[in-house]
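Would you mind writing out a protein's amino acid sequence and the numbers that encode its backbone to help me picture the idea?
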Amino acid sequence: MTDHESMDHDSFEPELTAFTCIYCGSMAGDTAGALGLTYPANVKMFRFPCTGKVDVEYILKAFEEGADGVYIVACPIGNCHHVHGNVRATKRLAYARELLELVGLEGDRLGIYYMSGSQAHAFANAAAQMTDRVRKLGPSPLRRVKKQT
């Protein structure tokens, strides 16, 4: 029996990677912190000038580096500071989902959320939703086994 098979999905705490833009996504996260909102601490955030710069390679690399789930926090559609960056991010995420499914990973390990910088509750909810979704899927089979020292 592998660690993956023996781990109870309810006690499993997934590792998530979130890619945000420096405008809406990042500001929503900062606002959530300023308001003292709580959300799962299992999220590693990476800020980009625009989510349109989040390449498929970055998404796949996050899984390779041990993420159980990845999501993007982008500006609302029609309100991107770089005009169409969030649309590019949406298309890249869809392509990454197809690639994951081709290698046997669930596409539900990927998500995208659109929000403005003032939507702190939406930011906290996105982290909680992704955590719950990925917890139900269990650990990623790509997760590297951490060597014991």
Observations:
- The helical segments are 3-6, 24-34, 56-64, 85-102, 120-137.
- The mean pLDDT is 89.
